[in-house]
Task: structure prediction
Amino acid sequence: MTCKEIQDILLTDYLDGQLDKQSADGIERHLSDCLHCREFLAAARKSLVAPFLLSEKVSLPQEEVWKNIKQRIEERSSEKLPARSTGDIFAKWRELIFIPQPALVLSLAVALILAGSLYFRSINEKAAETSSSENIQDLAYLTDESTVNDVEEESYGTDIEQYFF
Result:
């Protein structure tokens, strides 16, 4: 094993005494050969284990712990909830009625987009209905040679004016 793996085991199972005999012997052999890992173990013991050696051990029986938990739960559930005043009710209604500004802006934007698309769709449908018949008449007028000759007989002034009229 590498020093990194040994150090990980030292911090977890070795210091807690949770290693089996074979693994502990392997760690001990490595520690006897590796000065760096021995120094690491000494620093870990000093900073992680030593502060707790002098502390007072507190142990409660499991029954006592569960009894305290149950008692606190019962105390909290037996506490009465404060009665709501009419001001609280009106505040709740106001929250429901009045929409926050970002939501209002978003809903108005969606409504405007829908209204605009419906309006322009109706305009395009009307234009499509009327424009096809009018376009046919305009094209017939432009391609009709008799009307072209009639225009040439009338004098509008310059050649450009005659072209456009």
